[in-house]
Amino acid sequence: MKFDLNKIVRENIAKLKAYSSARDEFEEATANMVFLDANENPFQNGVNRYPDPKQQNVKELLSELKGIPTDQILLGNGSDEVLDLIFRAFCEPKEDNVIFLPPTYGMYGVLAALNNIETNEVLLSEDFDIRVKETLKSVTDASKIIFLCSPNNPSGNAFSEEKIKAIVEGFQGLVVIDEAYIDFSGSESWLEKLTQYPNLIITQTLSKAFGMAGIRLGVCYASEEIIEVLNRIKPPYNVNELTQQRAKERLLKFDEVQDEIARILQERSSLEKNLENIDYVSKIYPSDANFVLVKVDDANKRYDQLIEKGIVIRNRTTQALCENTLRLTVGTSEENEKLIEALKEIE
Ligand SMILES: *Cc1c(COP(=O)(O)O)cnc(C)c1O
Questions:
Q1: Residues 6+ positions from 157 with CB-CB distance below 8 Å
Q2: Where are the domains of the chain?
C-alpha cells in the first residue's frame, strides 16, 4: 500500500488557509524600501522589526550542513514546539492514537495528553531495544504516528538500522525519529533516507550538541508535502530574531561544535571508566549520547546523597525498566571529577 498523506492530515487542517503576516507579502526586501505595514516602532534597535517568519537564512545554513533542501525544513521554538505541531496537524483528538516505546522522552506522553490523543505504549526490551513485532501489533486503524527516539533518552542507546527500517516500512502512518542526540552517536542519521520514505519525519535540535538550549531552536526534516502542512499551522513568528541571529553565528562555526562534541565524547569514556570503580554501580549502559545511564543499589538514596554534595543528576527509578537507575549528563572534566569524587565519598 502506498503512503497517502491526505489520509493522515486532520480534516480541519487540510481545509485551513495559513495566516498571512505582513512580512509574508514581500519576498525580497531591499534597503531603500519603506515598511509601514506591520505597526512596528520605526526607531531601529536591532529587534524593532518582526523576524523573518520563514527563517530563510538559518534554513540555508542548515541545508548546507545537512544536505537537505530548505523546503524540507521546518523550525520551531525547540523540538517541543515541532512535536506539538506534528500532533496538531495529524492527530484528531479523542479519535486517533500515537505509539511510543517507554522508557523514552517524557514529552511524547505530555503532548499526547495535552492534545487529547490516546497513546499505545509498547515497552522496549530489557536491553532497551525495539520489539518490532509487538510494536507493529499495537497498530490500530486510528494509529497516526510512531515515535522512535534514537539515541533514546534515558537509556542512551541508538536503535539499529534494521529495527528502525522494519518500523518505517511496516507502518502506514508517520514515523517520527527524534534525533536530539544524533551528533554524539556512532550511528548514521536517517536524514539521507528521507527521499526514500515519504512517511518519515526526523527531528533534531540545537539544544544538545550545538550547545544552545537557551535559544530554543528545534528542527524538523520531512518531505516537502509534510513541511507544507506544518508551515501552514505554525505561529507566523515562532522563532524570534535573537534566536535566528545566534543560531546563524553558531552554524557558521560548526568546527567549534565538532570540537566540543569530540571533547564530550572523550569525557564520556573517561566517566564510564571511572564509574566501573564504584562498587554500588552494578551496570553502566552503553551510550550513544552525552549522558550515561547507570544502575545502582538504591537510586533514591544515592540521588539524595549527591544532592547533599551539591550535585544534581536525574533519578530515573520510576520509569519503566529503569528501576534503581540514575542518568548522568557528561559535563566538563572538572565537573565529572567532582561527580566521581562525590560518588566515591558516599560509599
Ligand atoms: C533534550 C531533548 C530534546 C530537545 O528538546 P528541545 O525542545 O529542542 O530543547 C528532544 N528530544 C529528546 C529526546 C531530548 O532528550
A1: 128, 129, 151, 285, 286, 287, 288
A2: 5-22+51-252, 255-345
Chosen CATH of 255-345 out of 3.90.1150.10, 3.30.465.10, 3.40.50.300, 1.10.10.60: 3.90.1150.10
Which helix (H) or strand (E) covers residue 219, if one does? strand 218-221
Sequence-separated (6 or more) residues with CB below 8 Å from residue 297: 280, 282, 324
Contact call for residues 199 and 173 (beta carbons, < 8 A): yes
pLDDT digits (tens, 9 = 90+) for 228-282: 999 999 999 999 999 999 999 999 999 999 999 999 999 999 999 999 999 999 9
pTM over 0.85: yes
pLDDT of res. 23: 72
* Other CB atoms within 10 Å distance of the CB of residue 125: 11
- 241-252 vs 56-66: helix crossing angle, rounded to 10: 30
Residue nearest atom 3 of ligand 1, based on CA coordinates: 180
Residue 19: the pLDDT is 80
Could you tell me if the CB of 154 is within 6 A of ligand 1?
no
Write out pLDDT tens, residues 72-126. Answer: 999 999 999 999 999 999 999 999 999 999 999 999 999 999 999 999 999 999 9
Domain 5-22+51-252 part of CATH 3.40.30.10: no
Determine which residue's CA is closest to atom 11 belonging to ligand 1: 180
Gap from CA of 91 to ligand 1 centroid (Å)? 21
- At 231 the pLDDT is 96
Residue 191 has φ and ψ, to the nearest 5°, of -55, -45
Confirm or reject: Cβ of 178 under 6 Å from ligand 1: yes
